[in-house]
Structures are given as structure tokens and as C-alpha cells.
Amino acid sequence: MFFSNRRYNIIIITFIALLFIGSVVFLGARSNLEVQEIFEEQYTEQQTLNAKQISSGVTEFLNEKVVALEVIAGAENGVPDDFYMRSFKALYERSQGFYALQYIDESGTIVSGYPEDRTPLGYNLYENNMDQAFQKTKSMGSTYITNPTYTFEDELAMYVWVPVYSGNDFRGTVLAIIRIEEITERVIQSYDSSAGYVYIIDEKGKLLYHSDNPKETGKNYFDILNEPDQDRLYILGEQTEGKEGMGDFEELNENNELEEKLVSYVPIKWYNQVWSVGVVTPVPFITSIVRSIYLKQATFMIITTFFILFFTSLISLIFLSWNRKLEEEVHKKTEQLKNSNQRLQKLNRVKNEFLSMVSHELKTPLTAMRTSSEFLREEDCDKETQKEMLDLIIRNIDRQSRMVDDLLDISRIESGRMVFKEEQINLKEIIDNAIQMMEPMATKNGINIESELDNEPRVKADKDKLLRVFVNLLNNAIKFTTNKGENIKIKTEENRDFVEISVIDRGIGISENEQDKIFDKFYQVDNTSRRKVGGSGLGLAIIKGIIEGQGGSIRVKSEPGVGSTFTFTLRKWEE
Ligand code: ADP
After folding, report:
1. Which atom of ligand 1 sits closest to the CA of residue 472?
2. Nearest CA to ligand 1 atom 4
3. Which of 192, 326, 361, 568 could form a disulfide with 554 if both were Cys (CB 3.0 to 4.6 A apart)?
């Protein structure tokens, strides 16, 4: 039963432990997913923010340039060539980022510019068929920007045309050439694109900037992309339409493996130009950041699992040892029960034996009394014989009433009804008294009784009952001393609160395993018919009851064939 209980406990504990570990792993895995989602979301938002920053950076940079150009073009004292020379030089030096500044008069001829080496003076737009933007600015009457094209020095640049008026008369245009690289270097260099790349395309899809691939600028981005997937084409389409958004696509990386990428794109709207900036990050880069969070979480899960295992094993051990203790306890109690049962059985046997012995003891004197009485009734006998008969009857009556007294006493002791008087007793007196009473029996058996007293101790006890203790102990000592000529000795020894009294004989002795039983009621070492001496087996039980009832104790020391010493204690009389 205990075995199966223990197994049951272990199964429950293991189940609970697994449940805990399962929950930890499940929650851990779930939160990992959530963390990844949240992180990706946050990362894309951050990416969009970066794209917006680039977009507004470019716009701001260009606006600043145009405002400065419009100030020069709208000046009252505009038009003279030397004015433009000075203004252009000042602007070129103050506001960094211009490639060249030129003034083209109303006939379409470059008449002034800075730096001089980039100014083809006398170059006529109409003659060279380069007059479209000039015409457009003239007809619009406002600033006009051409799509990025190459300069004479083969650099991708944009051309800003600002019309010049004198009153209402058109007097030509101020033309500023700004290299794309100049813009991106100033605006994008602050953005750390180590994780991915940044690119800018115009509304026709021309690649104006690519942080990873500067050589490809100026080409159409659709053409140079290596097998773009549908998602990418869609995103680029959105970009050329000037829309804002985010998305993901797959692209071959430098190891020629398909890699998922996240992109955020934001338009750069400026005058008649619509460009779009895209910020791209490879998903594995984001995952690698999340992985460090995973690692921490995994460590946490392992530690938690370890703790769960540790505590459940601890609980299991406690349970097991608790069970073992319970088992031991039950085993001990079962043993105790078995012992008490055996004792009870033995007591019952003793009681039965006692009953038959009591009947026998009661019957023997009755038979003697009956025979003597009948003899007295029938026979005509002389006075001497009559006296003898009557003495015999009286002795037997005494023997019987002693037996009945013993039975009554033991029942009083057991029910706690025995009353003890507290008298001051001179031990010498009472011992002498007892010796005197037992002397005839001792002499008859050829035994001498002597006493060896420590001063004349006085004790607190019930006199009659104490006399009975001495008489009984002496009676036993005489009864169980078979060799004639032996001595029985009574000795006293005073302690602090007690007096120890010993009755010492050199009789048959008691074997060790009988010694603690002789104080049980009805117990006799030899209760068979071979027993030569009489007795009920109550004597020592009554003595023990009397001694303990007065706060003392009794013990025996004995060796078979050597003799016995019964020692008991009595409380000293204190004045
Ligand atoms: P009983 O009436 O049979 O003497 P007790 O209770 O006085 O009963 O004694 C119990 C048993 O203890 C006796 O039957 C006897 O076997 C043993 N006994 C008691 N006193 C002595 C003694 N002085 N020497 C040896 N055996 C003794």
C-alpha cells in the first residue's frame, strides 16, 4: 500500500514539474514570437523615420539653395554681368554645394558665371539645341528644375532655373548646377546604413543614389535590378508614384543567397521634382538583434527549469522521507500492538492459572477445616486433640482471610483507592517488629535474620502497610532460601531525601528475564505443582503498590543460586 502510495506521489510530482516546465517553455516561446513581432514593427517604424529624415534633409538643402538664388535673381540691380559675377562668387563660397552658377541673358547666351572654368561664356542654348528648360522657365515665369542629367564633366547633377525680370521684362535666367552627390553626401552621410542600404530614385525610376552601389547611379533602377520579385516591383512602382509606405521583398545578397529585406520608402517632393528615398534592412540583421534577446530568455528558461526540477526533487525527497517515517512509525506501532497483545494473552493465561490456583488455595484450607470439623463432630476426642483440631481450623481461616485481604488490597491499589497515612516511623522499631514476627518461621527453616542499620533513620510512611512490606519480603526471603544456616540481612542507607532499605538473602535467586516480571500481579516464577512453597503471586505486586503509593520505588538484584537483594526507598521524615 505504501509502495503504491509513494509511486502515486512521484507520478503527481513529476506531472506537476512537467506542467510547470511546459508552461515556462510555452510562455517563453510565445513571448519570443511577440518580441520578434514588436521588434520588427519598431524597427520598421524607425526605418521609416530615417527615410523621412533623409527626405526632409534633401528638401531643406535644396530649398535653401533656391531661396538664395531667387534673392539674387530678384535683386533690383540685377542683370549687369559684373553684379552676377560678384553675387555668384559670394554665394558659391558661402553656401556650399553648388557646382556652378551662371547667368543666361534673354537671348539664351551664357554671359556670366562662377567658377570661371565651369562657365562656357558665349555658349548659346538656342544654337546648341539646349533651350527647352530655358523656354520652359521663361513661359512659366517661375523656378523650374530639370530632371537630373550629366554635366560636361560627367557628373550627375540637377539644374535649377530661376527667371530674372526687370519690371515685367524677361531678362534671362539664373542657372545653378547642383551635383546629386553633393546633396547625398551632406544629407545621408549622417545616416548609418551599415546594416542595409539607402537609395534614391526619381519619378522615372532613375537611380540617383545608392549607398552600396554608387557606380550604378544615373541608370534606370528597374533595369539594373537582378531579377526583382513582384513585391519589389510593386514597391518601386509605389515609389515612382510618390507614395509613402513599407514592405518586404527578397533579394540576392553578396553570397548569392535569397535574403528577405524590409524597406521603408518616403517621397522627396520638391518643386516639379518627385523623387523617392528607400531605406532597406535585411531581415537576418533584425533577427540577429532579436537573437540576443532569445539567448537571455533561453538562459532564463533554463534557470527556471533547473529551479523547478530542484524544488520538485526536494519536495519528492521530503515526501519520500515522510512516507518512510510514517512506515517506520506504523511498523513500530504494529510491533508495540503485537507485544501488548502477547502480554495481554500472557496476562490472561496468568489470570487463568491464578484462578485455578486461588480455587486450589481456597479449597485446601476448606478441606482441612471440613475434615477437622467432621472429626470434632463425630469423634469423642480428648481435650488435647480438640484444641489441636480447633488450632488447625483457625490457622486455615487465617490463611484464607490473608488471601482474601491480598485480593482486596490489589484491587484497591489498582483502582487508586488505597489510603496511606503519613506517620513518623522509626525504621529500627518497625524492622525489629517484623523480624520478631518472622523469627519463628525462620528458626524453623534454620535461618537467621539480622539487621544492619544506618543510625536510626526516620521515615514518612503508613506504619501498618510498611510492616506488611517487611513481613512479605522476609517471608519470601525465608521461603526461597533452601539451605539451612544461611543469613537474611536487612540494611539501610540514608541519601539526601530518601532512605534505601535492602532485604538480602542467599536463596535460590531469580533469573534475569524473570526479574522485571515478578512485580506483576499473579506472577510466580514456578507456579507448577512442583512448587513446594505456598503463595498467591500477589505479594510483590502489593509491595510495589504500597512503596510507589508513598512516593518510593522498588528494584531487585538477583543471581540464580547466589541470592536476591530487594531494595526499596522511603521518603525521609523532615521536621
Ligand atoms: P508469592 O506469593 O508467590 O511469593 P510474590 O509476588 O511474593 O508471590 O513473589 C512472586 C515470585 O517472585 C515468587 O513466586 C518467586 O518465584 C519470586 N520471589 C519472590 N521473592 C523471592 C526471593 N527472595 N528469592 C527468590 N525468588 C523470589
Report:
1. 7
2. 535
3. 568
What residues contact 161, with CB distance under 8 A and at least 6 apart? 133, 134, 136, 137, 143, 144, 145, 146, 173, 174, 175
Is the pTM value of this prediction over 0.70? Answer: no
Angstrom distance (rounded) from CA 521 to CA 541: 5
Torsion angles phi and psi, residue 502, rounded to 5: -120, 135
Residue nearest to atom 13 of ligand 1 (CA): 524
Ligand 1 center to 542 CA (angstroms)? 12
| Dist. CA 182–CA 184, nearest whole Å | 6
Instruction: Produce one character per residue of 457-491: b if its CB has 16 or more CB atoms within 10 Å, e if not.
Output: bbbbbbeebbbbbbbbbbbbbbbbbeeeebebbbb
- Condensed to tens digits (0 to 9), the pLDDT of residues 304-318 reads 888 888 888 888 888
Phi, psi of 310 (to 5 degrees): -60, -50
Enumerate the β-bridge partners of residue 69.
Answer: none
Angle, nearest 10°, between helix axes 427-444 and 463-479? 30
pLDDT band, residue 519 (cuts 50/70/90):
very high
DSSP lists the bridge partners of residue 158 as: 178
In this structure, the strands spanning 448-452 and 487-494 are: parallel
Q: Is the pLDDT of residue 200 over 70?
A: yes
| Strand partners for 489 | 450, 504
Nearest CA to ligand 1 atom 14: 524
**534: CA distance to ligand 1 center in Å?**
10
| Residue 241 grid coordinates | 508614384
Q: Which residues neighbour 36 within 8 Å (Cβ) at sequence distance 6 or greater? A: 287, 290
Angle between helices 283-378 and 383-415 (to 10 degrees): 160
Nearest to 349 by CA among 510, 181, 517, 182: 517
Q: Which of 417, 558, 371, 547 is nearest to 476 (CA)?
A: 558
- Going by the DSSP 8-state scheme, the letter that residue 23 receives in this structure is H
Q: Which residues contact 210 (CB under 8 A, 6 or more apart)?
A: 197, 198, 199, 216, 217
Using 50, 70 and 90 to split pLDDT, how confident is the model at 574?
confident
| Rounded distance between C-alpha atoms, residue 73 and residue 80, angstroms | 11
CA distances from 377 to 199, 236, 386, 390 (A): 152, 151, 10, 12
How far apart, in whole angstroms, are the C-alpha atoms of residue 531 and residue 506? 19
Q: What is the pLDDT of residues 521-563, one digit of tens each?
A: 777 777 654 455 667 788 999 999 999 999 999 999 999 999 9
Is the distance from CB of 442 to CB of 470 less than 8 angstroms? no
Burial track 242-268 (b if 16+ CB lie within 10 A, e otherwise): eeeebbbbbbeeeeeeebebbbbbbbb
List ligand 1's pocket residues with C-beta within 6 A: 476-477, 480, 505, 507-510, 518, 523-526, 535-541, 564
ω before 115 within 30° of 0 (cis)? yes
Between CA 558 and CA 119 the distance in angstroms is 142
